[in-house]
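Customer ticket, subject: "Can you confirm the structure for Glycosyltransferase involved in cell wall biosynthesis?"

Message body: Hello, I'm evaluating your service for our small team and ran a test protein. I'd like someone to confirm that this is what the system normally returns, since I don't have a reference to compare against.
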Amino acid sequence: MNTADADDILVDDLPAPRHSRRLAVVTETYLPEVNGVAMSMARVVDGLNRRNHDVQLIRPRQSAKLTVPSSGKPAVDEVLTKGLPVPLYPNLRMGVPSKRALVKLWSLKRPDVVHIATEGPLGWSALQAAQHLALPVTSDYRTNFHAYGKHYRLGLLSKPIMGYLRKFHNRCDATMVPTESLRTLLSERGFERLSVVGRGVDAQRFDPARRSEAMRQGWGAEPGDLVMGYVGRLAPEKNLGVLLAAYEAVKVAQPRVKLVFVGDGPMRAELVARAPEAVFVGQRSGDDLAAHYAGLDLFLFPSLTETFGNVTTEAMASGCAVVAFDSAAAGELIRSGVNGWLAGPGREADFVAAVRVAASDAAARLAVADAARMTARRLDWADITARFESVLEGAIVRGACADSANAKAFRRDSVPFNVTS
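Agent reply: Thanks for trying us out. I re-ran your input and got the following:
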């Protein structure tokens, strides 16, 4: 083999260079705000940046009380807009109408695609601006706003909210949803161009090795005591009355059982009154949050309003046995009795019964927790980002094909002028 032949082989073995895109990502919540949208969008933005894309992040300016650790600052071009407190979520901000500013911004630096993570005023402005400039646009369906109505006396608004969401997403080139069951549900309600893009979990951070007996003792748990817990917003839409019912049922057989709430929200005072012996630790984040998960033996998640529920996968990765309703991430990932326990959606008695079964059998609980950890370790964020990237690329390609077809039609239909002297 001569040198030229060897060089040819080396060149052929090199992977094709990744095509870098200019991406505009619009979201009305982002780290260090504590919620699933903020966390998962930060993961996706970081992944896109690592995949050599030029990411422009557009979001409302956050409260001065929120600080981002230096290691948590995104290596992207950030554009901060005005923001207002979100109704029902005073610690969060939402954007204000900003179409004119976005048209100007994207006229000067045109992105290849605009991705909209939230459907609030800033998201609607981004959609209008993108369509004004004939830019491809994709979106996420992340929050079941229409399902919150019965919890906040907004029942009459459920249909108008669903109509708005359908109008919003059907004006996009693609809408990403986190589960196949949600894709089916939205498709039946008239949503179009839906693609399933799940959620990952950091199985290195959320790890059973972070379990701390000292932390458990601080909760009042002695070795061998059962500790059940919940992580998330303490709010009506999380269906926490069912959790309390399950806790009371377990206490009958195991008086030393401990209940830990990680999170905060408008229901905290009510929950303290109803379960004064429970432990309320407030909001936690990072490795501290991971240690709290790992300290639990049984994770209870009774919510029926999630589009995914990142806490489910975080608990599974942390080696917790999970009891949940057959909905969202739990419905997609858990096989009841194998790597968790499920109750039929809305079957509260079945949820309580499943908790009693899980609480009464330590050996089964440990086997389920090990299986849950194995399931979660397969949910790699790199794979999720690649799927997300492919949906963006599809929208870009379809937009380019449409532009080409329109240009050809224009040339075909144009009638040349006859120039005479």
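A couple of notes from the result: The longest helix spans residues 381-413. The two ends are 71 Å apart (CA to CA). Feel free to reply with more questions.
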